[in-house]
Design a protein that fits this description.
The structure holds two protein chains of two kinds. By secondary structure, chain A is an all-alpha fold. Chain A has a domain at about 60-285. Chain A contains 15 helices and no strands. Chain A has helices spanning about 1-30, 35-45, 50-70, 80-100, 105-130, 135-160, 185-190, 205-220, 225-235, 235-240, 245-265, 265-270, 285-295, 300-320, 330-370. In chain A, helix 3 crosses helix 13. Chain B has helices at about 45-50, 75-80, 95-100, 115-130, 145-155, 175-190, 200-205, 230-240, 295-305, 325-330, 340-345, 355-360, 375-390, 405-415, 435-450, 460-470, 490-500; strands at about 5-15, 15-25, 30-35, 60-65, 65-70, 80-85, 160-165, 195, 210-215, 220-225, 255-265, 270-280, 285-290, 310-315, 320, 335-340, 425, 455-460, 470-475, 480-485. The N and C termini of chain B lie far apart (about 65 Å). Chain B has two domains: about 5-240, Rossmann fold (3-Layer(aba) Sandwich); about 245-335 and about 455-510, P-loop containing nucleotide triphosphate hydrolases (Rossmann fold, 3-Layer(aba) Sandwich). Chain B is globular and about 70 Å long. Chain B contains 17 helices and 20 strands. In chain B, helix 14 (about 405-415) packs parallel to helix 15 (about 435-450). In chain B, a hairpin with a 2-residue loop joins strand 14 and strand 15 (about 320). Classes of the chains: A mainly alpha, B alpha/beta. At the A-B interface, helix 9, helix 10 and helix 15 of A face helix 10 and helix 11 of B.
Chain lengths: ~375, ~500
């Protein structure tokens, strides 16, 4: 058991140590003091307000990672999380503005709308794959462009409310009634901590993301559908002979992946109250990196989402204290990812060898007991 | 004249296991020398040591009379030793010539590959050893046997005259085996020394000059191939009396389990690969299908299991028409399946054994239900299979790839039989597993038959077919061409039907 935990922890720890070494070297080369830079980052992150920022950033990253991971688990490369969340985001925002409901219904309706639209949009790629053999990488990349440059651009113009004066804050879809906005959960945190200052608001989507993580875990380990999904990813031929219908699985997995992707934009929607003229972008691609670092594991992805969020948030403090260039955080994200992929490869090999050895030992002991004389 | 290879006292230990224990092996120049032994007897380790992939802990190695130490395969190649692996290492998108020179390209000063020179050299090597191949064919267009020839020429091209062939016949169909043996004889005539691993004893006896048998990492015997029988060899390999596939008393009942009528399956070009198949299997009956591989047996299995589309005809299981059902519905209706290639269709190699046990039965107790996987039930059932079917593994959490082929197969047989199927499809159930595991598999199929299981047995091992089956049908070019009784048929007769040399008057079996 301890061995197993050591195996699981060894790779990320080694990757993290390597990242510290290489990024320190980079900082020295840039003429900064790495110790100053790291202590600034850590000092900054130990403040409650920064921690709220980190969680607010980690929440959509985590959702995005889970969305990508659902596909990865069956060797489907859903590169279209970006398009799926933006598409789900604008549709849910518009549906939200058109409804006047009590919060207890209004909020779920918006969230479910985002999931269904994100899911359906992703399912297009799944259907293209099973009916026409179109590779999902190609189709999801194209669907990203269609969503962002096509549909959203068109809808944004149409759904722009008529106003006498356009300002940066009034662009986008019409504002949603307050009943449709997920409240912050500052109150929940403040039970354990001091009051959150400087207007920091911890997103309520954090709870949704935790729920998604738990659901993802249960799906993979306890549900028959999750077993079929993993089996298809491990060996599609064996899965098929074992009764898993490959076409239905592909469409279902794409839908599920897109549905989780649909939730990503809901973090910003709760803050902005509308689909803004300039919505947050790039989360879909960042999620792929987070999923990769977290090995598609619900806990691993939570950890890597927090790490990426911490690095993102640290960029600000480095810029204001001038101890180091803020780009160092991107460098660190890149290095940790590369180092992790290498470390995982190595531990996987060691583990395989260990297992083969243990099995051979077990066999040997059986055979010596039943040794036959010639 | 000194021997081509002389190994003395080779010992190789892995943590907890002695793979080779004081192995002595002498291979004379210009002979074909076979190494036999069960899976896990230490054959592969010995070959790896000889090819420089692993170092021996003790013992000495002499090539052409000189004591040598190999640190890598390059050292072995320098001494003229080349290895052809069981799984080919060729780039499909490159031509034969490109594959052969890959890694040893003759180049001009500027780095350009001198293809003309390479082709001339290849032609010279090929002519010297009597091997024919078109250097400009793309490897992806080649048959398995031709690919193997490319691998052999590749080794010769690098100047090897001692060849190690690791289970060269495992991937070949009978005609290709013949072609390989012809090539091996030509190589020998041209002065090459061949060391090859095989556990098909009739093949060993046909081609080799000398035979060495390994058991539990030790050399138990080396002999000239002179008056030795397959039975002698097999006894040396297992060290005890040999099991034979025999079923004994008939247990055939009157209840029809599987009934297939006028089944036709077509390929992508709408050509029939199965045509007008009629057969039925009763409870307690083992129906054997004989045939040269690629004559429709695979398609028949796919049609029954539901992974191939049926263009005409019906398939019935216990009186219910299952022709239109999904694979899952058919599995739930009681079809057990032991696939031809366990790595491809039978296992999730990177998943633990207990998850592998659930595969194919994950919707049913004790493994799971419509929505959930019952982890406790699955683990309990896997432990049960491990005990009952003697799957040798430290625990049920190891990945399937850690098990030997025989134990993987026992797990698959166990999972299919413990789900109480009404029909078992067993495609080459003992292929590539050692004699001990083979006997266990036969035993289990026999027991299941006695309990009323209907079994469709497909096998290339004619002794297995004749020994286990209650009825044998012969398949040729997608049709059933003969029905014979195993009591009064010899492998020779079956061979004649399989190749179309003999026909039964009625043509179509009942």
């Amino acid at each position: 058991m301890i061995r197993r935990i050591a195996f699981i922890a060894a790779a990320p720890l080694a990757a993290f140590a390597l990242t510290l070494v290489i990024s320190s070297l980079a900082l020295v080369v840039f003429g900064s003091n790495p110790i100053d830079a790291f202590s600034d980052m850590i000092g900054h992150a130990s403040e409650l307000e920064t921690q709220v920022d980190i969680l607010n950033r980690a929440t959509p990253l985590y959702l995005s990672a889970v969305a990508a991971a659902i596909g990865f688990r069956m060797n489907l490369f859903n590169i279209g999380v970006e398009g799926q969340y933006l598409f789900g985001y604008i549709i849910a925002a518009q549906v939200g503005t058109m409804l006047a409901l009590p919060a207890i219904i209004h909020i779920p309706v918006i969230l479910i709308t985002a999931m269904i639209t994100g899911g359906l949009f992703a399912a297009i790629a799944g259907i293209l794959k099973v009916t026409r053999g179109v590779n999902e990488v190609i189709s999801t990349i194209m669907l990203n462009s269609i969503a962002v440059a096509g549909i959203i651009a068109a809808l944004q113009g149409r759904w722009q409310p008529e106003q006498e004066e356009f300002t940066a804050t009034t662009l986008g879809t019409a504002p949603i009634d307050d009943t449709g906005l997920l409240p912050n959960i500052n109150g929940l945190v403040e039970i354990f901590t001091r009051e959150i200052e400087q207007g920091g608001e911890l997103t309520g989507m954090l709870l949704v993301a935790i729920g998604v993580g738990v659901a993802y875990h249960l799906l993979l380990t306890r549900m028959r559908f999750g077993f079929d999904l993993r089996a298809s990813g491990l060996n599609p031929f064996a899965a098929r002979a074992g009764g898993v219908a490959p076409k239905q699985m592909i469409v279902a997995a794409m839908f599920l992946s897109g549905a989780v992707a649909g939730l990503i934009g809901m973090v910003e929607l709760a803050e902005e109250g509308r689909f803004p003229a300039d919505p947050i972008q790039g989360l879909g691609f960042a999620g792929i990196a987070v999923a990769l670092l977290g090995r598609n594991h619900p806990g691993g992805m939570a950890f890597s989402a927090l790490l990426f969020a911490f690095l993102d948030v640290s960029a600000g403090i480095l810029q204001s204290t001038q101890t180091a260039t803020k780009e160092i955080v991107n460098i660190m994200q890149g290095i940790v990812l590369l180092a992790a992929v290498i470390a995982y490869g190595i531990t996987k090999r060691v583990q395989t060898r260990e297992e083969a050895r243990a099995t051979a030992e077990a066999l040997q002991s059986v055979e010596t007991n039943t040794e036959v004389t010639v | 004249m000194s021997a081509a290879i002389e190994l003395t006292g080779i010992t190789k230990r892995f943590p907890g296991v002695i793979a080779n224990d004081d192995v002595n092996l002498t291979v004379e120049k210009g002979e074909i020398h076979a190494i036999c032994g069960e899976n896990g007897a230490g054959k592969s380790t010995l070959m790896k040591i000889l090819y420089g992939l692993q170092g021996a802990d003790e013992g000495t190695m002499a090539v052409n009379g000189e004591v040598v130490t190999f640190n890598s395969p390059n050292d072995a190649i320098d001494r003229g030793i080349g290895m052809v692996h069981q799984h080919f290492m060729l780039a499909d998108q490159l031509t034969v010539l490109e594959n052969i020179i890959l890694g040893a390209e003759p180049t001009s000063g500027g780095g350009a590959i001198k293809f003309k020179e390479a082709e001339a050299q290849l032609a010279k090597v090929a002519a010297e050893y009597g091997l024919t191949i078109d250097p400009n064919d793309l490897v992806e267009t080649l048959e398995v046997g031709e690919r193997q020839r490319v691998e052999i020429i590749k080794v010769l091209y690098r100047g090897a005259d001692i060849l190690i062939l690791d289970e060269p016949t495992a991937v070949l169909v009978p005609q290709e085996v013949e072609a390989l043996f012809d090539n091996m004889r030509d190589l020998k005539a041209a002065g090459a020394t061949i060391l090859f691993i095989d556990h098909k004893l009739d093949e060993v006896l046909e081609i080799s000059d000398s035979i060495t048998v390994l058991r539990h990492g030790k050399t138990v015997a080396t002999m000239r191939n002179d008056g030795v029988t397959a039975h002698d060899l097999a006894e040396l390999m297992v060290g005890s009396e040999l099991p034979t596939p025999e079923t004994g008393e008939s247990t055939v009942t009157d209840t029809v389990a599987l009934s297939i009528q006028n089944l036709t399956v077509v390929d992508e070009d709408a050509r029939p690969v199965l045509e007008g198949i009629d057969l039925s299997i009763r409870k307690g009956e083992i129906l054997g299908i004989a045939g040269v591989e690629g004559n429709g047996q695979g398609e028949l299995v796919d049609a029954i299991i539901g992974t191939a589309a049926v263009s005409a005809g019906t398939i019935g299981l216990l009186g219910n028409d299952i022709t239109k059902l999904s694979v899952r519905k058919r599995r739930e209706a009681g079809i057990g399946y032991v696939p031809e290639d366990r790595h491809r269709e039978g296992l999730l190699l990177d998943a633990p054994l207990w998850e592998n046990a659930a595969l194919g039965h994950q919707t049913q107790a004790p493994y799971g239900s419509r929505w959930f996987i019952d982890r406790k039930g699955t683990r309990r059932q896997t432990a049960e299979i491990k005990e009952q079917f003697d799957v040798r593994t430290p625990n049920i959490d190891v990945s399937a790839h850690a098990l030997s082929g025989g134990n993987q197969q026992k797990l698959i047989i166990g999972r299919e039989l413990t789900s109480n199927p009404s029909l078992l499809i067993a495609a080459h159930p003992t292929r590539g597993i050692d004699v001990g595991a083979q006997a266990a598999v036969w035993e289990q199929i026999r027991d299941a038959r006695a309990n009323g299981l209907a079994t469709l047995l497909i096998s290339a091992d004619l002794d297995e077919l004749i020994g286990l089956s209650d009825t044998i049908l012969v398949m040729l070019r997608g049709r059933l061409v003969a029905q014979v009784s195993p009591d009064d048929v010899t492998p020779r007769d079956l061979g004649a039907y399989m190749t179309g040399a003999a026909t039964q008057d009625d043509g179509q079996a009942a």
